[in-house]
Write a structure and sequence with these properties.
106 residues, 4 helices, mainly alpha, 0% strand, globular, single chain
């Protein structure tokens, strides 16, 4: 498959996965999802997001943006889990937050 076919295939799978995640949540069946599956899903999404941000041109409209479909609590739960997984603390987060902040005036 060509790279464009791979990205199209991924986009289709993401759409299907998003719908299935919502159906599983609505059905109250989260306890039946094995934790390693959730870990693999989050890890893959984090890697995809980070690589997309790194490859995007500064200020480009093609850079991925996290919207408000994730609640503040959900965002903080994941952020804290990622920090703990890498033995980081709020001070480390502050350093990285400054590194990845958008440039003023953009």
């Amino acid at each position: 498959m060509s790279p464009s076919e791979e990205s199209a295939k991924l986009s289709a799978l993401v759409a299907q996965l998003g719908l299935q995640i919502e159906r599983t949540i609505q059905a109250g069946e989260l306890a039946q999802v094995p934790p390693p599956d959730i870990t693999q899903l989050v890890s893959g999404a984090v890697r995809l997001y980070a690589m997309s941000v790194e490859e995007a041109e500064p200020g480009a409209e093609t850079a991925p943006v996290i919207d408000d479909t994730v609640s503040t609590t959900e965002a903080m739960v994941v952020a804290c889990a990622l920090l703990r997984a890498h033995h980081l603390n709020p001070f480390d987060l502050a350093l990285w937050f400054q590194r990845t902040a958008p440039q003023r005036g953009q």
